[in-house]
Design a protein that fits this description.
The protein is α+β, with helices and mostly antiparallel strands and 586 residues long. It is built from twelve helices and 29 strands.
Length: 586
């Protein structure tokens, strides 16, 4: 038995409180080496005749990656305390794994070697807002969604969709344009809108904030925004704003004061100025986002900066009843600031969703004291590489997806922000080289995945576009130019996600087949007695594959076509079209 491959720690994503009564415990072992794992567990204070009284619970293998197997068990300790270890077996030996190493048999005269979960305190349970788990998001780039009030147009605004977007041009998108199309979002099935920044700025993307307390005048005024939020809520749609607290824009008044007054400016410590006078060329002598002199980094450890930004967080929740904050470049801001931010905004509205933009392993931010979730790029990246780029074979796609699902506690995974594209990436149709069958596969994967899915505006009608600025084209409102077939396919998937508990975010995902030879993948989603099978053919040829289930006497429903079958044979073949997907409920 390869002992160095066996791993557990009594914290983070390996041992955590799922709710106020339930602990989730995971264990890692070398792939295909262990045949059975049993959790040895008990209360640390329950003894009889000098022996610790323990119970055993079988663990089940929930996932496999290229190198490891992962095991899982759910426990509800009688007194919310737990000491525990693991008994691992294969054909050659049995070992007991504890915090202090390995034993050949269960130790019951001393609990010191065992892992410890000291107490399941209610306040330590990671508890994201309950509504997020069932939300379906739609990302809107406000400048490009709809021009509803031409009187607000910035100088030199172009007619809608008349030209290709550039980093600097404007088409006049505004709040009225969004309000006029809320019925479209309701028809699609959207229950949450994620807006890129709406605050006063000089660019079309608004990530160069000039004033965090003011709306950019090209979008409308505060009363219009209040009306937009109210109408969204009346339509069952939550609203999430985007904020950049890592850095301000160049024309942020406080930074302009530093440029004007230099070392005598009262705001000089709001930023990281290395020396004076301040210079921007040939390179800035102050900290910035990347090396962009137009985005000076804010000193979030400074008391005045902290209070200013915390009030920004409070203000838009308190005065406009927004439902979430998406936080740009969140990993470059100190953890202490985010802890304070969470306390402040949650004190006003406890179920506000706090989402961090982080592209890597984000466990340090998901301890229940900072963010509710992060943008789940590792998860979507594996899917895009497999379904569109062909850079991942089927088995490796399964491994990377499993790693992403196990990266965080289940509480966090259930509200992870899953997306196929955004204002920073090429549109998914373009990534798929205009192959709409691949797009359908990706939408099926996205909307059946654990987490909260987000659709980038226009992807549902097959808009195309390369990376910025190509991905920021004006929304197409000419219905004859919209891909209605794709639209209705996405509507169907969203409806299934909402109505079918196994299909949606109540179902547990388990991969059952992955073949590098045929390049097909199958996984199930299960909830109670309900099972939904997803089968994807990621090849250019039609294939026939065996469903690894005994379906004799069961009613099987094709959820995408509505067809129903009753099979008499134990083994059943399913035909998958080239780049096709079949979804069966049984």
């Amino acid at each position: 038995m390869t002992r160095e491959a066996i791993y557990h720690r009594p914290k983070n994503n390996f041992a955590y409180a799922y709710d106020t009564q339930t602990l989730h415990i995971r264990l890692r072992s070398k792939k295909n080496e262990i045949t059975a794992v049993t959790l040895i567990h008990g209360d640390p204070y329950v003894w009889e005749a000098g022996a610790w009284q323990y119970k055993t619970s079988a663990m089940r293998k929930i996932a496999a990656t290229e190198l490891f197997d992962y095991w899982f068990v759910e426990i509800q300790p009688d007194f919310r305390r737990l000491r525990y270890g693991f008994e691992l077996k294969n054909d050659e030996e049995t070992v007991v794994y504890t915090e202090r190493g390995f034993f050949h048999e269960i130790v019951d005269r001393d609990i010191a070697p065992y892992f410890c979960f000291p107490y399941l305190n209610k306040e330590d349970v990671f508890t994201p807002p309950a509504w997020v788990r069932d939300a379906v998001w739609y990302q809107i780039f406000p400048e490009r969604f709809g021009n509803g009030n031409p009187s607000l147009n910035p100088k030199d605004t172009l007619p809608w969709s008349s030209e290709e977007p550039t980093p600097a041009n404007f088409f006049g998108g505004d709040f009225e344009g969004i309000i006029q199309h809320l019925d479209y979002l309701v028809q699609l099935g959207i229950t949450g809108i994620y807006f890129t920044p709406i605050f006063k700025a000089t660019t079309n993307h608004k990530y160069d904030t000039v004033d965090y307390m003011e709306i950019d005048p090209q979008f409308g005024d505060k009363e219009t925004f209040k009306r937009l939020v109210r109408l969204c809520h009346e339509h069952g749609i939550k609203v999430m704003l985007d904020a950049v607290f890592n850095h301000s824009g160049f024309y942020f008044a406080q930074f302009q004061d530093v440029l004007e007054k230099g070392e005598s400016s009262k705001y000089k410590d709001w930023f990281y100025i290395w020396d004076f006078p301040v210079q921007t060329e040939p390179a800035p002598n102050y900290a910035t986002f990347s090396f962009t002199h137009m985005m000076p980094k804010l000193n979030t450890s400074h008391p005045e900066v902290r209070e200013y930004l915390l009030e920004v967080g409070r203000y838009w929740v308190r005065e406009f009843d927004i439902d979430g904050w998406r936080l740009d470049v969140a990993n470059e801001v100190g953890h202490d600031f985010w802890r304070a931010f969470r306390k402040e905004v949650k004190s006003i509205k406890p179920d506000v969703y706090i989402l961090g933009e982080i592209w890597h392993d984000s466990m340090p931010w998901l301890q229940g004291d900072q963010f509710d979730a992060v943008m789940n790029y590792p998860y979507s990246s594996a899917a895009i590489q497999f379904f569109t780029q062909g850079t991942l074979p089927a088995e490796e796609f399964v491994y990377k997806t499993a790693e992403a699902l196990l990266m965080y506690p289940q509480n966090a995974t259930e509200v992870a922000f899953n997306l196929l594209g955004s204002h920073d990436t090429p549109r998914i149709l373009t990534v798929c080289q205009d192959n709409k069958q691949k797009v359908k596969q990706l939408f099926t994967f996205l909307l059946s995945s654990p987490g909260t899915p987000c659709i980038y505006y226009g992807d549902e009608i097959s808009m195309a576009g390369d990376t910025d600025p190509g991905c920021r084209r004006c929304m197409i409102w000419d219905e004859e130019a919209q891909d209605k077939e794709m639209f209705h396919f996405v509507v169907q998937l969203i409806s299934l996600r909402k109505k079918n508990l196994a299909f949606g975010n109540r179902g547990t995902l388990q991969f059952v087949t992955a073949s590098n030879v045929t390049n097909h993948v199958m996984y199930t989603k299960t909830f109670e007695e309900q099972t939904v099978l997803f089968a994807f053919n990621n090849s250019d040829q039609e294939i026939t594959v065996d469903m690894p289930f005994n379906l004799r006497g069961k009613k099987v429903t094709n959820l995408l076509t509505g067809e129903e079958f009753a099979y008499e044979a134990e083994r059943v073949d399913v035909v998958l079209a080239a780049h096709g997907v079949v979804v069966l409920e049984f």
